[in-house]
């Protein structure tokens, strides 16, 4: 069953239960009120009658009747549908006024009345269907019962009112429930339409084409947010897929170069018999190429690992880490030609992944050493209010303007650097690490004057 059909049915069911509870309450409270009202009018009629009756007045035609009733009052009561019967203490009917006067006095009611108590009773109407409500009350002189009055009123009006109420409730409820089901079904359909669109978009998407988007107008409701999140996710997937594709393409391309070189060394040497010296030279060339391959695959692995596994967060004091790294790389410099210095300014503690930060520093300082034949290299860790900055400034060969925007791309190497060792992955790794530390890395450079690499790291890059 579809979600919207289920929603419609749930709304219907809830309405049915609510209506049943509410209808039941209305029905029973209205019936109770109607019957209580009927009893009240019987009671007030009887007490008015008794209060105004001239008991033992002796004016009545029936010779042994001790009661004279107020004619205006009896007329008034009769016009309100009340019937009055006066019985003697033996149960003999003395007076009868009104419509329902053929009801004999029940012995139980007579006994109650003779005992001085009034009693209500519901009895079948002898003139037809329906019931009659009666109130039997004693008339007394000096606490002596001299007659019994029985007030009666047909319950037909009350009963038919109650029936009509029940009928309205029973007829109205299915209509309201049906309207609820249809309304719920329609509303759920409207609310869920974007989800249908999402399903259709998801069906159209393949790994080769992640450009599809829902593009729904942004709304603040749950479905609107879901649609927005869905589009964002598609965007991220698209980026990731494109990066992966470029990466494998570039990696294959880079691996091919040393492999092709090895192949040509082998085929040249295998052409004919060679002297031991030639074999040695060929082996040395092969070793060089193997070395390149190894560095390349190691860098690739590192990059893949950095993307796959999350960082290991800990507190890193760059005031200690930076000098350590710089000192470990110092042997690579020619102390006579290059001055390598290191300073820390301000509070330079960050939350970060130590191994990754070491790799970042090694790559930057190693580059500065590689591309600075003579001059100075200054490494500075600087604590700023919001971030911590690491600056690696050299007075080396610099980077030409046309290469500058590309140096952070994977496998990118400026033409003139082809002679130095390297894979072109170092700065790409640096950028990746800076990003995982909620930071960035920038470069400024002037050919012939030197380069400045600036890394900005958030003090606490951990996601919330
Ligand atoms: P590589 O392995 O070639 O050093 P990188 O990704 O580390 O690869 O650097 C990419 C390119 O950026 C290098 O080939 C080089 O042309 C240039 N580069 C990087 N650092 C410097 C620097 N300090 N001075 C001059 N050029 C640099």
Averaged pLDDT: 88
Shape: rod-shaped
Question: Oligomeric status of the shown chains?
Answer: single chain
Enumerate the strands of the largest sheet in spatial order, edge to edge or round the barrel.
Answer: 4-3-7-6-5
Radius of gyration: 52 Å
Low-confidence region ranges:
57-63
What fraction of residues sit in β-strands?
15-25%
Summary tags:
51% helix; Helix Hairpins; 9 helices; 3 domains; 20% strand; alpha+beta; Heat Shock Protein 90; Beta-Lactamase
Structure write-up:
The protein is of the alpha+beta class and 464 residues long. The protein has three domains: 158 residues, Beta-Lactamase (2-Layer Sandwich); 103 residues, Helix Hairpins (Orthogonal Bundle), CATH 1.10.287; 149 residues, Histidine kinase-like ATPase, C-terminal domain (Heat Shock Protein 90, 2-Layer Sandwich). Helix content is 51%, strand content 20%. The chain is built from nine helices and 14 strands. The strands form four sheets. The protein has a five-stranded antiparallel beta sheet with strand order 4-3-7-6-5. It has a five-stranded mixed beta sheet with strand order 9-11-12-14-13, with helices on one face. A two-stranded antiparallel sheet has the order 1-2. A hairpin with a 3-residue loop joins strand 13 and strand 14. The longest helix has 50 residues. The protein starts with a helix and ends in a 6-residue tail after the last strand. The structure holds adenosine-5'-diphosphate.
């Amino acid at each position: 069953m579809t979600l919207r059909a289920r929603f419609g049915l749930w709304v219907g069911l809830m309405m049915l239960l609510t209506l049943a509870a509410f209808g039941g309450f209305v029905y029973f409270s209205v019936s109770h009120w109607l019957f209580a009202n009927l009893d009240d009018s019987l009671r007030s009629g009887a007490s008015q009658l008794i209060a105004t009756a001239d008991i033992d007045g002796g004016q009545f035609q029936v010779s042994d009747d001790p009661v004279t009733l107020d004619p205006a009052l009896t007329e008034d009561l009769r016009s309100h549908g009340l019937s009055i019967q006066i019985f003697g203490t033996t149960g003999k009917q003395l007076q009868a006024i009104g419509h329902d006067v053929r009801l004999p006095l029940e012995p139980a009611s007579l006994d109650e009345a003779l005992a001085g108590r009034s009693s209500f009773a519901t009895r079948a109407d002898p003139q037809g269907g329906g019931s009659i409500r009666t109130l039997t009350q004693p008339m007394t002189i000096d606490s002596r019962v001299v007659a019994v009055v029985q007030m009666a009123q047909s319950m037909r009006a009350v009963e038919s009112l109650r029936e009509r109420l029940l009928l309205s409730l029973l007829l109205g409820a299915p209509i309201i429930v049906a309207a609820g089901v249809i309304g719920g079904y329609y509303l759920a359909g409207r609310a869920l339409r974007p989800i249908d669109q999402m399903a259709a978009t998801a069906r159209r998407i393949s790994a080769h084409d992640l450009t599809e988007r829902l593009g729904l107008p942004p709304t603040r409701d749950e479905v609107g947010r879901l649609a927005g999140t869905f589009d964002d996710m598609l965007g991220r997937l698209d980026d990731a897929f494109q990066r992966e594709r470029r990466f494998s393409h570039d990696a294959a391309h880079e691996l091919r170069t040393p492999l092709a070189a090895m192949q040509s060394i082998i085929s040249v040497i295998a052409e004919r018999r060679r002297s031991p010296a030639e074999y040695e030279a060929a082996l040395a060339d092969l070793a060089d190429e193997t070395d390149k391959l190894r560095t390349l695959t190691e860098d690739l692995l590192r990059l893949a690992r950095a993307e796959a596994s999350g960082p290991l967060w800990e507190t890193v004091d760059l005031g200690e880490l930076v000098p350590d790294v710089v000192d470990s790389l110092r042997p690579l410099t020619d102390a006579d030609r290059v001055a390598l210095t290191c300073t820390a300014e301000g509070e330079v503690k960050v939350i970060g992944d130590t191994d990754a930060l070491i790799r970042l520093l090694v790559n930057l300082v190693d580059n500065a050493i590689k591309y600075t034949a003579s001059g100075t290299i200054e490494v500075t860790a600087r604590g700023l209010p919001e971030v911590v900055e690491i600056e690696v400034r050299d007075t080396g060969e610099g980077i030409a303007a046309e290469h500058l925007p590309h140096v952070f791309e994977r496998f990118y190497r400026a033409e003139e650097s082809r002679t130095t060792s390297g894979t072109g992955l170092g700065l790409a790794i640096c950028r990746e690490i800076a990003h995982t530390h909620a930071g960035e890395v920038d470069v400024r450079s002037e050919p012939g004057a030197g380069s400045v690499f600036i890394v900005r790291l958030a003090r606490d890059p951990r996601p919330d």
